Amino acid sequence: MSDFNKYDIESICQPLFDELNGIMSFKWDDWVGSILAEFSVEQQDSVRLILEKFLPAAWDKTNIGTAPQVVQALDQRLGGVRHAQLLFTSEPSGDALVFCAWWPWGNGTHISLRFAPFGQNLSGKEVTDLLEQMKVWARI
Fold first, then answer.
1. Whole-angstrom Cα Rg for the chain
2. Residues in CB range of 71: below 8 A, 6 or more apart
3. What DSSP element (H or E) covers 92?
4. Dihedral class, residue 118 (left if φ above 0, else alpha if ψ from -120 to 50, else beta)
5. pTM, whole model, 2 decimals?
C-alpha cells in the first residue's frame, strides 16, 4: 500500500463519521464510487464545521488552481469544481488523501456529500479496501 494506509484513514474518518452520523445517514453511491449523504441547507453551517475539523483544506472554483497536484487530479476526475461546489480534503499523505465533495442541489434545498479516498498511486484493490473500512465507520 502507498504511504496512505488504514491508520491514516481511520484517524480521519472514524471520528468524522461518528460526528456526522448524529446529523445524517449514509449510503453507497455507485455513480462516483463513494459514500453519499444528503442534508438540508439549514444544517450547512454545522456540517461544514465538522468537515473542516477533519478535512481542513477547502477548495472551490477560485482556489483549485493553487491546490497540490493530487487535489487537482481529483478535481479533474470529478469533472471540476463548479460554482457553489466545494472539495474538502485531508492533508495529502504521500500522494493520497480523503475527500468530501460538497455539491448543492440545483433547487437550493439540499446538499449532497460524497466521501472517498483518492490517490494517483493507490491500486483499485487499495481503494476498494479503504472504502470497505469507511463503510463500516459510516454504518452502511
1. 14
2. 57, 59, 64, 87, 89, 92, 97
3. none
4. beta
5. 0.92
